[in-house]
Amino acid sequence: MSQGSKLILDANLQAFFYEHLQDFNNRSLAPLPTETIFYSSQVMDNFGNSEKFFEQVNGKAREKILGIKLMESSQYPREMQKTILKDIAEMSLLICGYFYDSLNKKIIDVRYYEDVGRIAYSKLNSFCPNAYDVPSFYHKMASHFSDVTLLMSLVSKKYSADSDPAMPWLILKDRKVS
């Protein structure tokens, strides 16, 4: 293991993410609701298994093409649409949040994934208007998409190999972390 690598030992990955998301959320001037942080930690935990990032096409694993999946989602029965939209929204959330820096190497920028994620959450809200005992929960996720992804990217940066553990975190809306 390299000198800068950090090994995370925690019995529950969701609890780990919740604790760190909530820590950054508490430092924010406009904190997000607890349900949003809880849901976001579930998303991060759910994608802890790398197989969730890929789909099988003709027996081969490939990256999910979220924009095409979003367009095709309306062709499926209602329950399947709900599942597909949730997968698209959550995958977009994670890409724009935890894996934000990886988008620097892609042709498609973060705005594309943000738009896809917001649209998927908005459509999902029509299928599930209430979640976590919160009316219009997924609509609120669409509205706070950038705020949630910012928190996720802060957690990612905190545990990246080049992170300074003593660094004070200043949370700014334009993704610049200093």
Topology:
Elements (H helix, E strand, L loop, with lengths): L12 H15 L6 H13 L7 E4 L2 E4 L2 H7 L5 H19 L13 H18 L2 E2 L2 E2 L1 H7 L1 H14 L20
Helix pairs in contact: 1-2, 1-7, 3-4, 4-5, 4-7, 5-6
Radius of gyration: 16 Å
Low-confidence stretches: 1-7, 167-178
- In helices, the fraction of residues equals 40-55%
Structural class by helix and strand composition:
mainly alpha
What's the oligomerization state?
single chain
Sheet with the most strands: spatial strand order? 1-2
Instruction: Give the end-to-end Cα distance, rounded to a whole number of Å.
Output: 26 Å
Strand/helix succession = HHEEHHHEEHH
Number of strands: 4
What is the strand content?
A: 5-15%
Structure annotation, total helices? 7
User: Would you tell me the overall average pLDDT?
Assistant: 82
Shape: globular
Domains (count): 1
Q: Let me know the largest β-sheet.
A: 2 strands, antiparallel
